[in-house]
Amino acid sequence: MNSFFKSQVILQIQNENNLLFLFCAIFFVGLIGIVFKRDHFLITLLSIEIMYLGIIGFSVVISLNTFQNLGQVWALLFLIVAACESAIGLGILIVLHRYGKTLNFENYEKLRG
Fold first, then answer.
1. In which band, very low, low, confident or very high, does the pLDDT at 11 lie, cut at 50, 70 and 90?
2. pTM of the prediction?
3. Which of 21, 42, 45, 108 is deepest in the core (most CB within 10 A)?
4. Rounded distance, CA 25 to CA 11, Å?
5. What is the crossing angle of helices 3-36 and 41-66, to 10°?
6. For 52-100, how does the pLDDT look when each residue is reduced to its tens digit (9 = 90+)?
7. Cα–Cα distances in Å, from 99 out to 38, 43, 109?
8. Nearest partner of 77 among 68, 66, 85, 65, judged by Cα
9. Domain spans of the chain?
């Protein structure tokens, strides 16, 4: 095995590890957004979308690393779920804004069902 090929393999592994770390960090940024700002509806929705982005990126990097397409299929399914969740969430956001003119959860005690 020549040294150029070894250096390319090591560089590829380091790039994959950096990407995995990046997508884990993106996921935890979304998780921190939910934990610390869970009283505001829009920030909660954006944090969930950021968490979906981290999961999607992580699964794509893993699937490219293992040469299997299953991770990319899961990423596509996560994208579909994220699109449905954001459509429903934005509909709820419009109704809440019309109802109470604010997006804080604490102002909607009457809506508990």
1. very low
2. 0.76
3. 45
4. 21
5. 160
6. 999 999 998 888 888 888 888 988 999 999 999 889 988 888 887 787 7
7. 20, 19, 12
8. 85
9. 3-111
**Phi/psi at 104 (nearest 5 deg)?**
-80, 140
- Centre a 10 Å sphere on the Cβ of residue 27 and count the other Cβ atoms it contains: 19
Length of the chain: 113
Of 23, 102, 25, 92, which is closest to residue 58 (Cα–Cα)?
23
Tell me the CATH number for domain 3-111. Answer: 1.10.287.3510
For residues 91 and 98, the answer to whether their CB atoms sit within 8 Å is no
Cβ atoms of 39 and 96 within 8 Å: the answer is no
